[in-house]
Amino acid sequence: MGEAFAGRQLGRKAMLAGVIAHSLPDIDFAAALWLNTADNLHAHRGVTHSILYVLLISPVLAVVARFFLKHAEISFARWVFFFLIISALHIFLDAFNNYGVGWFEPFSSYRISFDTIYVADPFFSIVPGIALVMLLFIKHGQQARRFWWKAGLFSCLVYLSYTVVNKIIINNRVTNVLANQQIVAKRVFTTPAPLQNWLWFVAAEMDSGFYTGYVSVFDKKLTNELTYSPRNDSILNLLPDREEANKIIKFSQRYYTVEKHADTILLNDLRFGQITGWYDPRQRFAFHYYLQPEMDNTLVVQRGRFANWNKETFQSFINRIKGN
């Protein structure tokens, strides 16, 4: 986007301006330095990913750009427009994965998530990555630069649209799977399994728990077996203080279950799927938060995402994607 906006006037500095502006909302990672994990989960993709942030930061960045790039014949209004678009694109793209984005902070804590793409999908990044490399090496002023920034942006749009189509296919397939198993769900959540967009995790909410499992875009039959997990709310009554648990439940958008193992009580956020759940449907959930006793929850979102991955589970992953 930086190259498209001001490549002719600024050369590679235009891409640098784009990178800085597009990355700035993620400055909220610094909140982890003083917030506990439960509060930090809400702070991430909160205020700095809001519409208000986009409106306020754009003129500020325009002033900075005008100061440091005085030689560029770009008006203040054009700079504001550029930073407005590129900041808005960041919070828009983030809404397509399952973490949730606080577009309406600080006025409302409601989170937006379309759940169509895994947070790190290499297939989304291949063409933009190649385009970036080419733009770093192709000399300023050559017509090929125009081709590559267009290719980078257009490929993102095409792939993102493809994930929405897959979401529709999966949701229709899940509706049929639930009907086939005579499961009447209150809510249904679907999101891609790691690193691709063809195998999706499903959580269907019942009154007292969830049916979970995996459905592929290439499934030909409706015989997918969904595994039931009770919510186990009553376990939370064993806690001396439920404040921390309530924060995690709110973050999970109430897609959660509670487990008790000996003296350990943990809460699962189902939205992040299971650890190799396509291989073993009884595997634990990737996002599990220790409520009691106090344990390290610092990397709670990343915990377990790629645990138990080996040759056998990876081959099972590929086979399950194929619909087997």
Description:
The structure is a single chain. Helix 1 packs antiparallel against helix 2 and helix 3 (37-43) packs parallel to helix 8. 35% of the residues are buried. Strand 2 (199-205) and strand 3 (209-216) form a beta hairpin. The mean pLDDT is 94. This protein has 324 residues and is α+β, with helices and mostly antiparallel strands. The chain has 2 domains: 2-114, no CATH class; 182-321, no CATH class. The radius of gyration is 22 Å and the shape is globular. Strands 1-2-3-4 form a 4-stranded antiparallel β-sheet. Strands 5-6-7 form a 3-stranded antiparallel β-sheet, with helices on one face. The chain starts with a helix and ends with a helix. It is built from 9 helices and 7 strands. The longest helix has 37 residues, at 144-180.
Strand content: 5-15%
Side by side, the strands of the main sheet go: 1-2-3-4
Number of helices: 9
User: How many β strands by DSSP?
Assistant: 7
Shape: globular
SSE order, one letter for each helix or strand? HHHHHHHEEEEHEEEH
Distance between the termini: 41 Å
Taking the sheet with the most strands, its summary is: 4 strands, antiparallel
> How many domains comprise the coordinates?
2
* Rg from Cα: 22 Å
> Segments where pLDDT lies below 50 for 5+ residues?
none
